[in-house]
Amino acid sequence: MFTGLIIELGEVVSLEKKTESARMSIKASGIVKDATPGDSIAVNGVCLTVTKLLTHNSELFFDVSYETLKSTNLGNLKRGDRVNLEPSLKLNSKVGGHFVTGHVEDIGKIRSKTPSGNALRIEIETPDNVLRYLVEKGSVAVDGISLTVVDVLKDAFSVVIIPHTAKMTTIGFKNVGDTVNLEPDILGKYVAKFLTGSQQSAVSSQDKDKELLSALKQSGFIS
């Protein structure tokens, strides 16, 4: 579990792709100090497990599955690319963003970046399976960054980022057309499932009532 508050920008050292997996190494002088093999670290919003580390070289190693490569933008990374990093949430940590699982739902694409005062308005083209969970003023993780949704459009949503966020995360230097990993707020997904289940239960209950009335009429108990 994470909060969407990026601790450090790491640099991709290597991404070795195999038939159905990959091995990635990232240089991160800050996070590597407290990391141990087996730790979970969010890389551009994707929860990965540290398999090895070289403290003298500030380098972290991760194994990336085929499914992760397919459903996120990690497979497009190359040597020298910078990535957002966040260690997993500790019980005594401050929750300044929102609860982020590190399980990316889908990939979005930056449609536009427009200055808005000293801030930056970014519109992100978004698949329906993510957009259905977004609400204005709600939370969304974009490449692991906890952001507030400003507008929900037909096929996109917008966010406004302050200069600090632009400076400390990848969203500041990504360009129009670049992809981003998207994870809607987990609370929204639970609410949507609950409401869908409630509606289905209500329909099922109505059907049962109709069947009971029909049986009573056929048996002559009611007219």
What topology emerges from the helices and strands here?
Layout (H helix, E strand, L loop, with lengths): L7 E10 L3 E7 L12 E4 L2 E9 L4 E7 H6 L10 E6 L18 E11 L2 E7 L2 H4 L7 E4 L2 E4 L2 E2 L3 E6 L1 H6 L10 E6 L1 H33 L5
Give the number of helices. Answer: 4
Task: Count all strands and give the number.
Answer: 13
For the CA atoms, what is the radius of gyration? 22 Å
Overall pLDDT = 89
First and last CA, distance: 59 Å
Strand arrangement within the widest β-sheet reads: 10-9-13-7-8-12-11
CATH topology of the largest domain: Elongation Factor Tu (Ef-tu), domain 3
What structural category characterises the helix and strand content? Answer: alpha+beta
Task: Give the biggest beta sheet.
Answer: 7 strands, antiparallel
Residue fraction in strands: 35-45%
Unreliable segments of 5+ consecutive residues: none
Question: What oligomeric arrangement do these chains adopt?
Answer: single chain
The CATH architecture category of the largest domain equals: Beta Barrel
Characterise this structure:
The protein has 223 residues and is of the alpha+beta class. The protein folds into three domains: 8-87, Beta Barrel (Elongation Factor Tu (Ef-tu), domain 3), CATH 2.40.30.20; 106-187, Elongation Factor Tu (Ef-tu), domain 3 (Beta Barrel), CATH 2.40.30.20; 190-223. 22% of the residues lie in helices and 37% in strands. The chain contains four helices and 13 strands. The chain has helices spanning 66-71, 128-131, 163-168, 186-218, and strands spanning 8-17, 21-27, 40-43, 46-54, 59-65, 82-87, 106-116, 119-125, 139-142, 145-148, 151-152, 156-161, 179-184. The strands form two sheets. It has a seven-stranded antiparallel sheet with strand order 10-9-13-7-8-12-11. It is globular and about 85 Å long. The N and C termini lie far apart (59 Å). The mean pLDDT is 89.
